[in-house]
Amino acid sequence: MEKIKNFLKKFGLTNNEIVIYLAGLSMGPSLASAISKKTKIGRSMVYHLIEALKEKGLVTSIGPKHGKKFEMEPPTRLTTILLRRKKEIEKIEKNLENITVELESLNSTSYKPARIQFFEGEEGMKNVAEDTLVLKEKKQYVIASIDSLLSAFSRDYLEKYLSLCDKKKIFRTSVWSKSLTEVNVNETEYRKQRVAPSDCVFPSTIFIYDDKVAVFSSEQEKAAFVVQSEEFSQTIKMLFNSFWKVSK
User: Fold this and answer.
1) pTM over 0.85
2) How many whole angstroms separate alpha carbon 127 and alpha carbon 132?
3) What is the DSSP string of 67-109?
4) Nearest CA to 194 among 243, 134, 238?
5) Which CATH architecture has domain 115-246?
6) What is the mean pLDDT of the chain?
7) How far, in Å, CA of 109 to CA of 127, rounded?
8) Which of 79, 118, 194, 196, by CA, is between 20 and 30 Å from 105?
9) DSSP string of 47-58?
10) pLDDT tens-digit profile of 53-67?
11) Which residues, in sequence order, are CB contacts of 46 under 8 Å at separation 6+?
């Protein structure tokens, strides 16, 4: 039962909503008073929780206004709801970049102080990786340590990330610390890349995008940080250009 409750929490239900939903499933169509008696939750609160579950598509009502019974939707309904949410999220993602640009245009502040954010663990590093895909200027400059990337992310995740870059038409110029045959990363219309001299070993991977610089640490540290600063990003971009010139 605990496994079911944990799933329903992830689905977006509160503790009391879960109690009402599970009780309703076991009871079948029931009056609010009966649900209240079984769950030991006050009748007025039961009505409130049922309304919340209705909004989530998990309750239907049966009968006249007086004497109305409530029936919980079967568990199979959860799949339908998830599919609908997925479509809604996909629609939001399509409009996200345009909305972000419009919101940024409303920001009248000409001077923005430097900002540093730190992230730890696999999920934190994925958050940073996904931030590098949200761009005003569709360009990335990358000093890439394949060892640090493979210690942070699976090959499957990296392949999906690169594919998404191409799909978003992000132009990615990168200098790798190892031969690209080792990592099977091919040039495409949107990817230009070189290999650094053999004496250049990068313990970390650096992304330069818009006014940000993201740094992914070595396998030992398993962390990342993002610096948002126009001056700093321009400085690191100059270092990138120096690496680019001596790479082949």
Assistant:
1) no
2) 9
3) T-EEEEPPTTHHHHHHHHHHHHHHHHHHHHHHHHHHHHHT---
4) 243
5) 2-Layer Sandwich (3.30)
6) 83
7) 26
8) 118
9) HHHHHHHHHTT-
10) 888 888 888 877 677
11) 20, 32, 35, 36, 39
